[in-house]
Amino acid sequence: MNTITFWWIAFITIFIVVYFIDMYVTDHRKGEISVKTSLRWTSVWISIALLFGLAIFFFFPQNEGSEVKTSTVMGIKFIAGYLTEYSLSVDNLFVFIMIFSMMAISSENQPKLLKMGILISIVLRILFILAGMSLVQRFEWVIYIFGLILVWTAYKMLFSKSEDNVDPKSNILYKAASKMFPIDPDAHSSKFITKIGGKTHITMIFLCLLVIGSTDILFAIDSIPAIIGVIDEGNKGALSLAEENFLAISSNVFAVMGLISLFFALKGIMGMFRFLKHGVCIILFFIGIKMLLGWVEPISNFFHENSWVSLAVIISTLVFSIILSKVISEEVEEKELQEKLEETEK
Predict the structure, then answer these.
(1) Which residues are CB-neighbours of 85 under 8 A, at least 6 positions away?
(2) Distance between CA 317 and CA 303 in Å, rounded?
(3) For the residues 240-252, what does the mean pLDDT come to?
(4) Measured between alpha carbons, how far is residue 185 from residues 103, 163, 194, 209 in Å?
């Protein structure tokens, strides 16, 4: 058994165990999961992913003929890729929350849709990663197109409101399905398809799944260039294509692992992530510019020799955005309280 096969087996085993534990916890809950419990489970899943990255950092063997220590490069790139994709996944969950709210999906049906949405996301990301990595390997100039996509995505995210991009009824799949089949009047049905009077009806959660699935495609289009920018850019042959694919897929899948628990936590602590979108925009812009400037030898050499710089930028940006969200939200609350006191005194 070669090295990369061993790590694939380890990754798949961990994912299957964690995924089924997560499914069991959410399926056997009594009532909605509390924020405290959700945060506890979320911290467990994050810890497992980071421990996996540390295992790569310390134990992945050195490639023959490589000037840079392979385990160090792979460990840093795994954690950088994981944090980038996790921050994007958190931002994506906010969109899911809005979709559920706008389509009036009951809390009982939300976990079921999340599970299917996550599975769709995993399949799409794996397919997109394999296609993207192959393109970059065959046509080096594709990396610059991905860089432009990231810069454009950062701009689009920064200057557009999330709710402007979430209108289920304008979704092409929603429109097509609702024209082809009548909709079950029971808005809280837990089935995807029902029979009423011998006629096939689609339910609201079926329409919601179509919206989430098409949204997953858009998320994958935005996130795949980001992970390729973190994993592939600046390697200069330090990693093989098989190792790059392993890092890109494993960090992506770990990033969506445990999102069900995080979903319930986010509904109670959304204020902590008010500026997360801005932080994600900065990260995407940074990765995009780094990819676009890859042809500049000094810049390319710098990131090749100092792979920790990208990780430092990602971590510091995420931490700063969360701290800023906490500080500013507190200031806003204090200001509102002060204004209410002043009105009372008048």
Answers:
(1) 223, 226, 227, 251, 252, 255, 256
(2) 18
(3) 86
(4) 13, 26, 10, 17
CA–CA separation, 12 and 17 (whole Å): 9
Work out how many domains the chain is built from and give that number: 1
C-alpha span between 334 and 166 (Å, rounded)? 31
Tokens of 86: 């996790």
- Gap between the Cα atoms of 242 and 231, Å rounded: 12
Q: Note the pLDDT of residue 322.
A: 78
Q: Which residues pair with 196 in a beta bridge?
A: 199
Residue 9 has pLDDT above 90, yes or no: yes
Tokens of residue 41, six digits: 């489970």
Q: Write the pLDDT tens digit of every residue in 13-56.
A: 998 888 787 777 666 665 566 777 778 888 888 899 999 999 99
CB contact set of 204 (below 8 Å; sequence gap of 6+): 103, 104, 105, 183, 184, 187, 188, 189
Q: Cα 195 to the chain's mean position, in Å? A: 36
Q: How far apart are CA 324 and CA 110, in angstroms?
A: 30
CB atoms within 10 A of CB 32: 14
Q: Is the pTM for the entire model greater than 0.85?
A: no
Would you say how long the chain is, in residues?
A: 346
Determine contact, residues 148/292, Cβ cutoff 8 Å.
Answer: yes
Q: 46 lies in which domain range?
A: 3-345
Residue 23 structure tokens: 């499914």
User: CA dist 233 to 95, 107, 301, Å?
Assistant: 29, 42, 11
Per-residue model confidence (pLDDT) at position 296: 74
pLDDT digits (tens, 9 = 90+) for 68-107: 567 788 888 899 889 888 888 877 777 787 788 788 888 7
